Amino acid sequence: MLAPNEILDSEKRNVERRDRDIAVAPPQQRKIIHIDMDAFYASVEQRDHPELRGKPVAVGGSRERGVVAAASYEARTFGVRSAMPSVTAKRNCPELIFMKPRFDVYKDVSRQIRSIFAEYTPIIEPLSLDEAYLDVTENLKGIASATQIAEDIRARIRTETGLTASAGVSYNKFLAKLASDYRKPDGLFVITPKMGPAFVEALQVGKFHGVGPATTTKMNRLGIETGLDLRAQTLAFLQRHFGKSGSYYYWISRGVDDRPVRPDRVRKSMGAENTFVEDLFTFAAARAALQPIIEKVWRYCESAGIRGRTVTLKVKYADFRQITRSRTGAALIATQAELARLVFALLGPLFPATKGIRLLGVTLSSLSEEQSGLDAQFSLSI
């Protein structure tokens, strides 16, 4: 029989061993699904107008200054893409059929799809009307396989909405989004933990979520063409050339992404910007360059059903000096024309410019859900 002090020592060792085991136990590996509807707006139009099925369709304005908001896969074979000027799209595809956006319909379908998601998990992070992340590590159906859940959801979407969705399944958000793009449209792809690093190293950096055209060009100039090239760089090198984003690029090149799926993410602002190949020196050139940026911001507002009160203009000069100009109104901005009018009012006093402008950006903040009766005009007073 053990003496009392020996019993205490034994229990102490057991506790220490248990605590040590807990400390080194690896965290539970996540099971993440990224669902992305296929050509969502255009597919809804083809569903509701059978005569459009199999034909090249663009949702957006057909006028000279219009922009394509979405294109059917039939239109994409002609090089028609979202954010493309309508005149360019029509030139690429003379048979292109333009449909006026019906955001109220798209929102209703989106709510229907999200109700399907909610039957499997409460951990849903919508990115827009047509895509979302789902964390199904522990799910409401008790299904062990994330792939099976993704298959079930895709089948439910097809049956209940008449639309198709692509799904990516992986152990983090970055890879799940890459996977959903891999077999579009109407596809499912899984990237396992063993596949992750090798899958990333073979990709062109321009395919990485979070690496836009300007960053792709900069990486290419630095000799970084693929995920393998990116992984070969040190953290210090990437932070020196890409600032805060350098750490993100360092880890995703290794297939590592610890960001959780955030079910109640509240977006505080929406912005878009563009870095130009050649510096801008005139008001007319800057105004023209801002137009597609404004349209991109407004398209997000329309698709997400939100409006904002504060507009910020971002300007970066050729010497990398950066300034911002903002105004906040008493009412929500009701139209794209109002947003453009305010942005140009902020831009005007910056001219004549003494140096070239290399980047322009527009951010809309103080966001809230779209309200009916947005009749009050946005005040230009400071």
UniProtKB/TrEMBL annotation:
Pfam families from the xrefs?
A: IMS, IMS_C, IMS_HHH_1
Q: Where found? A: Cytoplasm
What are the annotated GO cellular component locations? cytosol
- What EC number(s) would the UniProt record show? 2.7.7.7
Q: Name one GO molecular function term.
A: DNA-directed DNA polymerase activity
Q: Which PROSITE patterns match?
A: UMUC
Cofactor note (record): Binds 2 magnesium ions per subunit.
Domain (UmuC): residue spans on this chain? 32-212
Names of required cofactors? Mg(2+)
Q: Which UniProt keywords apply?
A: Cytoplasm, DNA damage, DNA repair, DNA replication, DNA-binding, DNA-directed DNA polymerase, Magnesium, Metal-binding, Mutator protein, Nucleotidyltransferase, Transferase
Q: Give the family, as the similarity comment puts it.
A: Belongs to the DNA polymerase type-Y family.
- Complex formation: Monomer.
**Under which name does UniProt file this protein?**
DNA polymerase IV
Tell me what gene encodes this: dinB
